[in-house]
Amino acid sequence: MSSATADSVPLRRRLASWVNRVRGREDPNQRAARQHRSFDAMSGILAWMLSHAGERLQPAGRPRGRALEIGTGQFMAHAAALYVCGYDRVLTIDRYRQVVPSLVRASLETPVLARRLLSPHVDHDNYVARLRRLETTQYDLGRLAETGVEYRAPAEASALLADDERFDLVFSYTVLEHVPPSEIPGLLASSSRLLAPGGVALHLIDLEDHRDPRADPFAFLSPIGTWSDEACGERGNRVRRSRWRRYFQEATSLNWTFPYAPVRHDAPLPARLATEFQGLEETDLRTSALLAMAVAPRAD
Questions:
Q1: Structure confidence by residue, pLDDT tens digits, 97-111
Q2: N or C: lower Cβ tally within 10 Å for the chain?
Q3: Rounded to two decimals, what is the model's pTM?
Q4: Helix 101-108 with 39-53: angle, nearest 10 deg
């Protein structure tokens, strides 16, 4: 995503939030913080993703080391959940500053299900102790960093290579589909090199059109002309499953597996496809998400 486009996105969101408040409407971001972006909801997603790594992760109750989240977003719920799961240092980065402390507090204010959802990955006492540590910070970014959850933005994975630190988990959730295709190989290569020996990479990519994923998830596969960086940021980069697999395998030296790749048959494909999608198998076009996982080789 170009810097000009990236800088304009949070400004538009702030303006939309201000307009909603002026009109007396509920901020949709506040509603999201209590619903699909709540700590409970995001803990469920994290638990499901970590379950695919299984024995490749340290068992619950043992120190898990360092985690890197690519793409914090506004709510920081996944970074908090990674810390609660036992990672002593969680670095969460964005290409532009998005985190809103009030949304972070709203997301984490009433966790009900998270301790049960995360129970395969953290024992109860450690869950409670770590969550209380986070609560004492009142989700102030400076105090969170002192606790072990550091937010860094603007930042890119490639810039972290200058440091000696490597990570036991590199994680992203519905982020990579917003990266312009020309930038994908470099991002995958640099983030993979940040893995410590034996470290796990987990990326969940949403392959649906973000404009209307429920009713028209493949609309953006129709002929639309040049697909801009801004369109990638708002609706997704349109990259299909087969191309993602090539990106992962060609941009890195890791052995990637793809344990989750659901295919949707309940929604129509466009009557006409853009040139770059013609000739692809229907299952490739209809794949709606992709979970990519790899483990870095251990040192001899």
A1: 999 999 999 999 999
A2: C
A3: 0.89
A4: 80
